[in-house]
Amino acid sequence: MPTAIAVTSPDLVLPPTDPQTPLAALLQSPDAQPLDAALVDMHRLLEQHGYVIAFCPASLSAAHEQRLHTVRSLLETDRITLIKSDLPPLGLAILVRQLRQLSVCDFSPGVIASAARLLSHYIHAGAVLNSVTRLERVPVGLTAHARSWMPGSQFAVLANPRPQLVKIGAAATPAGPDFACDMLLAQGGAGADWVTGSLAPAWGVRAVQEAALPSESAAWWGTGKVTEFAAYLPDIAVLYQLVASVRREQCRWCAMELIGDRCGFCASRQPGEEEPDVPHGAAALGPVPASAYRARPLTRAERRRAIAPGP
């Protein structure tokens, strides 16, 4: 069975691109579901899929996040990972769908979880805003703040992979992807003509699809007059090749398979290639660097403490 992909909001579950793409499980908030029912649902997911990768926005409420940690702790399992993302709502929904696509491939749960960081770099997520006065997640200069008070002003803001801001009407457009891509568009109060008429051709977008505007978009962008857009890699074959081409290693904390320098399950950073391995034989009698102690496998209790929420 494929690794289960779970989300904390139905807005993060885009329609599947093909019949093979599974849906995502919904992890409801404490207000919508009692703890006993949440435990039963998570236990069922683990029984059916073996591992659960749960995605949540960085803006998730403290109560909802604590519920997720409580469920994982009470089940006493290290087969659940919680991945928080700073992507805008529409971009995060695209990332979740891409991981849903890859979950039916021959990748291990650890590779799928750590692939989230890799694939997020290939999602160009932004929005058209009528005002940037309350925009806090992207740097905004004083000039842009002043212009946002002028009637009829609109701005194109790119939040990922690199923050950019341009005033619509000028010749410039945000720098876009250097690969063939599709675009997803969620129309709000800011209108979509500039996105479809100017931005998409400038970025060489092959096709533009539409989706409903996520409920969290207004809070994320600081205004209700927003239209979100995101360019992404739509082809599952390209996604598969991209992930498969990265060297796989074993996490030295939790022993899960991973790609990149950070484990997708315990979030620990892996030592660089120049860091010495744990000494063996006679070499073990000499001084041992402090970093070498990370090489021993952790106990289950230590792993739970390692992934517990911070203070």
UniProtKB/TrEMBL annotation:
Protein name: Uncharacterized protein
UniProt source species: Streptomyces hundungensis
